[in-house]
Amino acid sequence: MKKKKNDKFAVACAFEILHECISIDHIEDCNEICKSLESYDELSKECLKSNDLSDEFLKDVQRYIDNYILPILEEDYWDFIKKEEYGKVNDKGFFEINSEESAEKICLEFMGNSLNLAKELLNVFSKYLR
User: Fold this and answer.
1) Phi-psi region of 5 (alpha: psi -120 to 50; beta: other; left: phi over 0)
2) Are 109 and 81 in contact (CB under 8 A)?
3) Sequence-separated (6 or more) residues with CB below 8 Å from residue 12
4) Are the beta carbons of 78 and 48 closer than 8 angstroms?
5) How do residues 16-69 score in pLDDT, each as one tens digit?
6) Any alpha helices (H) in 75-99, and if so which ranges?
7) b or e along 98-123 (b: 16 or more beta carbons within 10 Å of the residue's beta carbon)?
8) d(CA 43, CA 74)
9) CB 5 within 8 A of CB 56
10) Rounded distance, CA 11 to CA 57, Å?
11) Buried b (16+ CB within 10 A) or exposed e, 16-47
């Protein structure tokens, strides 16, 4: 049986789709993340038919999705930025930020999280884009 070789264009398309899930513009939008995951699913199915992506690549990407993207969809994912020093949850269940400095710190943690997710995505894809 012929070993599958990864088509660079298909790998780049997969990267772009998954990067949309973790971009600062979409990381809080569960609907956009789900749409991107559906797009990736369609791409991976097409690539399986045409033999454009290796099983190893698909497993590595699925592991990334399971470990880094799917947790974003969990209700408590953003609890790490709801620190007592930054504010409190009000009677209606919304987190109220206590100061501008806290808002800045939350933004930094938010961006740091997004950058970490991007770093991990690059780690997965870097060996396939050489």
Assistant:
1) beta
2) yes
3) 129
4) no
5) 999 999 998 899 999 999 999 999 999 999 888 888 888 899 999 999 999 999
6) none
7) eeeebeebbeeebeebbeebbeebee
8) 24
9) no
10) 9
11) ebbbbbbeeebbeeeeebeebbebbeebbeeb
| Distance, first Cα to last Cα, the chain | 24
Tokens of 15: 């990267």
